[in-house]
Design a protein that fits this description.
The protein is mostly beta strands. The chain has no helices and 22 strands. Strands 2-1-10-9-6-3-4-5 form an eight-stranded antiparallel β-sheet, with no helix packed on it.
Length: 318
Amino acid sequence: MQKRKHYLSTTILAVVLCIGAGCSREETPGEVNSGGALGINAYIRGISSDVSTRSVVTGESFNDNSTIGIFIDGDGYTSTAVTYTYSDGSWSSSNSIYLTKSSATVYGFYPSDLTPAMDGTSSTVPLEISSAITGFDVSGNTQTDYMYATVSGITKSNSTASLTFYHGLTELSFIINKGSEFSGSGTLTGITLTSSGSSIAGSGTLSLADGTVSLTGSASATISLTGTTTLNEYSETASSNVVAALLAAPLGLSSSDNVTLVLTIDGVEYTGTISAPAWEAGNNYEYRITMSGGELIIDSSVNIADWTTTGPTDVDVN
């Protein structure tokens, strides 16, 4: 199974920011601080972008009104979260962060309206992954794409910090096609995923140092999507159109959990098993499903989208 890590890059550059009285300077009394301000110039690696909302982030550039959160940590610094807004090709903030000769670590998070717990390498932001989702379109069903970034060694004389933003969750996409023998209307009204062990939804935290997701409240091994949509029509060339998608907590490479997949099509439930999926954060796992008569068939094919898409994956169904 081939995996490629997809990430977003943000470069901190020359915008003047200040974090109030907590800013630490090493100038002598009366000396004017003539430099060392921290600022932002941000971009995303990808194809297209729409990050002005809390939905899934894709693309290579930020749209106007996009925002991210930034704070710094280090000897003599006071950690205070600052919001940066992108507009007309540049980033700005109503506050300022000033650097001294002391080394600072810069942390970034998305969405910017999260309230971070600022505690050095133990810094986190809260997250919530719903176990009951309405709508099959991941960009429109109100799920949040949580991201994190960090870089160390930033000082007054080295005030340019390059931040790489990583996705904290796993994306799962389902390409569901009608087979040549499928005679139903192909109305999809439900998708349910159930892990045999680890939780894949709930509330908790995302580490800003390494991206660890910890679910501590309302943890659930099941995620269900409901709505109404139609399967891709039969074609001799199988469609690659994604019918449904969702975000889930990563299971990780070491997971031995199996995931039961239940599709409700034309009022009938079809069940399959995804054996020990190694769902990693930042990867988009696409599952191609063909409804052939009364049988559900999972193909071993994968497409690579904006997020890193990982596969192939074989699923036994009955």
